[in-house]
Predict the 3D structure of the following.
Amino acid sequence: MVPKPRFASFDDLNAHLAEQCRKRMDDKLRGHKGTIGERFVADAERFQPLPVVPYDACDKQSVRVSSLSLVRYRGNDYSVPTAYGHQQVLVRGYVHEVVIACGAEVIARHVRSWEKEDYVYDPLHYLALIEQKTNALDQAAPLADWKLPEAFLTLRRLMEARMGKKGKREFVQVLRLLETFRITDVEAGVQSALERGTIGFPSQACCAYPARQWMR
């Protein structure tokens, strides 16, 4: 651990540490007759069996969702879908992520923040509400730092220019497709519609067709 290792994720760090351990298996430390690998084999023979159910290495807290669809955990606020406002949920805090469940259903996952008084949003959690209050599309804090591909921004400009307020609502409906489909698939559908010059959101077809067929 010297110098201090830097990796993009804990998985990458663990893989690095495991590789360094394997490289030392043939080393023999002062005061020991066998190699590190030989001593490990001897130790492994005396290990107890692993538990039938894996240990969930996390901190668990039962908390209530606020009116802003936020859950406070360790001094930071994490978003959940607006449908779960004011409900009791279970927060599981891991080293690298925060998982929030309501009953047996996982309703939110976030990268854990180690800051203080931080707000961690998932913009998708607020789209159902914004669809009903489209004027909040530009003012909503959860969407402020949402970086969407350029094709989405072009689509919005065209929708609002052609349909006014209705175009803004249809754009939010397009964004809600991200609740179900990958952003790359939705982007492909948006780009295809822009190339054809045919934009809109057929609400009856959004769940019946693949991601590239939503635009008409």
